[in-house]
Recover the amino acids of this structure.
C-alpha cells in the first residue's frame, strides 16, 4: 500500500468504538488515503454476519444517556453501513486477524461480506507501513 | 459574481457527521462537470469537512453561507 495508508487496528467490539472507527475509515477514504483495517478479538466477533446488527453495548464510561445516544445513532446510520460507504468511495481493505479467528472459532464464511479476508499479523504490518492506530 | 444556478440541492440537515459529506460525494460522482450542488447541513463537522474534501477532490467551493441553525455549501463539480 501507499505511504499515506491509514491503518486501524480494532480490538473492542462495542458499538460506540466501532462507530468511531468507521467514521475515521470513511474520513480517510474520502480524503483519498488507502485504509487498512485489521479486526481482532471482540471487534472481529462483532463482524460475524449474524451478529453485526445486534446491540453490542457501549464503553463503560458512556453512562445511560451516552448508551441511549449510541443506540439512536445506530438506528440512524449503523457502523457497518459506514464501513460499506468507506469501501464504496475509496481504497479500503478490511481483514480479520487469523489468531483471533482461531481463538473465537470463527471461519471466513461466518463473517460479514465487508470483510475481505483473513491475515496473519505480519501481513497486516507489511501493509501498514509506518503507522497504525489502535482502537 | 452572479449566483450559480443550482443543479441539485441536497438537504442533509439533521444528518450526523459524516452524512452530509457522504451525500455530497455520492451526488458528485454521478454528476457532470460543471454541475453545481447545494448542500444544507446542520452538522458542525461539515464546516471543516466539506471545504477540505472539495479542495482534496479538486472541485470548486463556490460559497459557504451561514443560515439560521445550518450552513449552505455551494460546490461546482470541476473535473
Amino acid at each position: 500500500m501507499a505511504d499515506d495508508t491509514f491503518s486501524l487496528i480494532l480490538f473492542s467490539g462495542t458499538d460506540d468504538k466501532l462507530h468511531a472507527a468507521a467514521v475515521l475509515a470513511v474520513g480517510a477514504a474520502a480524503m483519498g488515503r488507502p485504509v487498512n483495517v485489521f479486526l481482532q478479538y471482540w471487534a472481529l466477533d462483532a463482524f460475524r454476519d449474524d451478529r453485526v446488527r445486534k446491540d453490542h453495548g457501549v464503553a463503560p464510561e458512556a453512562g445511560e444517556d451516552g448508551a441511549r445516544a449510541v443506540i439512536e445513532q445506530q438506528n440512524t446510520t449503523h457502523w457497518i453501513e459506514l464501513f460499506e460507504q468507506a469501501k464504496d468511495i475509496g481504497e479500503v481493505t478490511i481483514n480479520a486477524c487469523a489468531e483471533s479467528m482461531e481463538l473465537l472459532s470463527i471461519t471466513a464464511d461466518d463473517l460479514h461480506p465487508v470483510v475481505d479476508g483473513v491475515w496473519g499479523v505480519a501481513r497486516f504490518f507489511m501493509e501498514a507501513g509506518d503507522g497504525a492506530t489502535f482502537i | 459574481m452572479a449566483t450559480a444556478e443550482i443543479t441539485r440541492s441536497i438537504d442533509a440537515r439533521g444528518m450526523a457527521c459524516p452524512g452530509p459529506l457522504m451525500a455530497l460525494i455520492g451526488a458528485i460522482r454521478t454528476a457532470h462537470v460543471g454541475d453545481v450542488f447545494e448542500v444544507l447541513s446542520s452538522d458542525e463537522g461539515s464546516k471543516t469537512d466539506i471545504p477540505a474534501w472539495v479542495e482534496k477532490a479538486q472541485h470548486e467551493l463556490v460559497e459557504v453561507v451561514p443560515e439560521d441553525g445550518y450552513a449552505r455549501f455551494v460546490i461546482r463539480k470541476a473535473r
In short: The first strand of chain A starts at residue 6 and ends at 10. The CA atoms of residues 66 and 86 of chain A lie 25 Å apart.
